[in-house]
Design a protein that fits this description.
Main location: membrane
Membrane topology: Multi-pass membrane protein
Radius of gyration: 21 Å
Pfam family, one: MFS_1
CATH topology of the largest domain: Growth Hormone, Chain: A
CATH architecture of the largest domain: Up-down Bundle
Helix content: over 70%
Low-confidence stretches: 470-480
Protein name: MFS transporter
Strand content: under 5%
Subcellular location: Cell membrane
Strand order of the largest sheet: 1-2
Number of domains: 3
CATH superfamily of the largest domain: MFS general substrate transporter like domains
Order of helices and strands: HHHHHHHHHHHHHHHHHHEEH
Shape: globular
Length: about 475
């Protein structure tokens, strides 16, 4: 085999590397935008769809479930059949889902459309894996940091855009905008991103994919709907317990077949396992801020716990965190090249701890929340950039897509758990205001403590991640 650079030239075509990074980052922005799409109208959905609040909750839950199931499976499919090909399929599914939702006046069509939109979440781990395959080694870390930043940037920028659209147009326009964005991403990927010839041989593990899907859906349903159904209700216990049992059987099965969906022995390597555990904690800390800060900013001043800002004004206060993430990406790349990504994760967790500590001390002015969100931007910018770097330094080339997908799944478990736990806390510490229950200062304070505690867990776990590269790692190259 020739050098790494010679191997890379054997890719079918190689547009400018900056263009490849820009296109994949745009796909990442589209992915994170899907999760802020419904925020401006979420509280109004029962009225808009003429349905109960419990039924309209599925508009959000369906996207979460689809994303969690599709992400690790699409990563494996990308390893086997081509990452760009699977990425294009995911974008196409999102476009179809957006059109279905845009044309649907009722709740069933909206839920179906939102479920299909959840497929787009898989483009981030796939995009990161493509970067490892096709970029020069000296550009990989910065590009991964930039791609990871889109997870926060898309939401930070998408929220004010969604707010403006819903204030000035029919809410279905949100889905047409999503469809248009998907078409642009599809065309750019088709035009710019090279076809990867790095493939993993073997058969796709259909039984393993089905088992993983069933187990994840059970656990995530229990977590996401626990507040509404009751944490000790038969439904939550059945879904949660059943999902856990299915995943245990799934793990036993995956360890005993020759071509598993996910190589759990690779996932059990210390660097990979600890990074994934830290991902759960980082996901929790991030989403806790996404739930709490906007509510504080938007609640009426008369409640004693809010600042009375409009949705648009509140989103502009939150937006700088996403801008910080983007500006940090080249810095994160340089730090990773010089010291390794472990330091990035430590810095990220420390920044999140600082953000929550700052808020516990100072949260009486709007600028206090702005400062806290900027610190959150530092934390997630460094933390989310580090995790795929740590993963890819510890897994073989054949496992890149699947391992990144699994890491994205663990982040999703963290965000899902945060949504349920923080939601339960705010519901428990609520008072009646004009006939509507609203969170109290005590509820927000406890939420800050929980978010900070998750960040502490991420920091402690990060300290134990091995610094050295795994002996199994090899630099991206084409098979002989």
């Amino acid at each position: 085999m020739g050098s790494d650079e010679d191997a890379r030239r054997r890719l079918t075509r190689m547009p400018p590397q900056g263009a490849i990074v820009a296109v994949l980052a745009t796909a990442g922005l589209a992915s994170s935008f899907m999760f802020t799409l419904m925020v401006p109208i979420q509280s109004k959905l029962p009225e808009l769809l003429n349905a109960s609040r419990e039924d309209t909750a599925w508009v959000v839950t369906s996207t979460l479930l689809a994303a969690a199931v599709i992400t690790p499976i699409s990563g494996r499919l990308g390893d086997m059949y081509g990452k760009r090909r699977i990425l294009l399929v995911l974008v196409a599914v999102m476009i179809v889902g957006s059109i279905v939702a845009a044309l649907s006046p009722g709740i069933v069509g909206i839920i179906v459309g939102r479920t299909l939109q959840g497929a787009i979440v898989g483009v981030v781990p796939l995009g990161i894996s493509i970067m490892r395959d096709v970029l020069r080694e000296d550009r990989v870390d910065s590009a991964i940091a930039f791609m990871s930043a889109t997870l926060g940037v898309g939401g930070a920028l998408g929220l004010p855009i969604s707010a403006v659209i819903t204030e000035r147009a029919d809410w279905h326009v949100l889905f047409w905008v999503a469809a248009g964005l998907g078409v642009v991403v599809f065309a750019l990927v088709l035009w710019i991103v090279p076809v990867s010839v790095l493939r993993t041989a073997g058969r796709f593990d259909y039984l393993g994919a089905a088992g993983l899907a069933v187990g994840l859906i059970g656990i995530l349903l229990a977590i996401s709907r626990g507040n509404e159904w009751g944490w000790a209700s038969p439904a939550v216990l059945a879904f949660g317990g059943g999902g856990a049992v299915v995943l245990l059987v799934w793990g036993w099965y995956e360890l005993r077949i020759d071509e598993p969906l996910l190589d759990l022995r690779v996932a059990a390597r210390p660097a990979v396992l600890l990074t994934n555990i830290a991902s759960i904690a980082m996901g929790f800390a991030l989403f806790a801020s996404n739930v709490v800060y906007p509510q504080m900013l938007e609640l009426p001043v008369a409640t004693g716990a809010g600042f009375g800002l409009s949705l648009l004004a509140a989103s502009l206060i939150v937006m700088p965190s996403g801008i910080v993430m983007m500006l940090l990406s080249p810095v994160a790349g340089r730090i990773a090249r010089r010291t390794g990504p472990k330091l990035l994760l430590i810095l990220g967790a420390a920044s999140l701890i600082a953000a929550y500590a700052f808020t516990l001390v100072l949260s009486s002015e709007v600028w206090h929340i702005l400062v806290a969100n900027i610190l959150i931007g530092f934390g997630i910018g460094f933390g989310y950039a580090s995790m795929p770097m740590l993963i890819m330094r510890s897994v073989p080339q054949s496992e890149t897509g699947a391992s990144n997908g699994l890491n994205a799944l663990f982040r999703s478990l963290g965000t899902s758990t945060a949504a349920a736990v923080i939601g339960a806390v705010l519901a428990s510490y609520a008072v009646d205001f004009d006939g509507v229950p609203v969170p109290t200062t005590q509820g927000f304070t406890l939420s800050f403590v929980l978010g900070g505690a998750a960040a502490v867990v991420a920091l402690v776990v990060a300290l134990f991640i091995p610094r050295r590269r795994d002996a199994h790692e090899r630099h991206p190259s084409l098979p002989e």
